[in-house]
Design a protein that fits this description.
- By secondary structure, the protein is an alpha+beta fold.
- It has one domain.
- It contains 2 helices and 4 strands; from the N terminus they run ααββββ.
- A 4-stranded antiparallel sheet has the order 1-2-3-4, with helices on one face.
- It is elongated.
- The relative contact order is 0.18.
């Protein structure tokens, strides 16, 4: 009896790591890697550098279509750091390049 109970316990312990449990395994990212602003081309070319206000408007339009809100956190040179929120919860933090229109998640 002791041996069969021990064998069952060992098999349960050894089989637990084999199950595929990943956090967010089937969840699509809020900002796909290498995504770009719709005002620029997909090759990362804008006609000219966007102003901070143009970039903010483009980001608002982009994320509003996905059902999110944004909060500008920092403006520095050609980059803008933005928090993407769903209700009051931060779901992504991105860096937006005003010269190329590229968005990169840093969350």
């Amino acid at each position: 009896m002791k041996y069969s109970t021990a064998l069952i316990v060992i098999l349960v312990i050894l089989s637990a790591p084999l199950s595929e449990v990943y956090a967010g395994h089937n969840v699509m990212p809020v900002t796909p890697y290498g995504d770009f602003c719709p005002l620029c081309t997909k090759y990362g070319i804008c006609k000219s550098a966007m102003t901070h206000e143009d970039a903010k408007k483009a980001m608002l339009d982009y994320y509003h279509k996905k059902g999110f809100n944004i909060e500008l956190e920092k403006k520095r040179g050609r980059f803008i750091k933005v928090k993407v929120k769903e209700k009051d919860k931060v779901v992504d933090v991105i860096i937006f390049d005003r010269m190329t229109g590229r968005m990169r998640s840093i969350f």
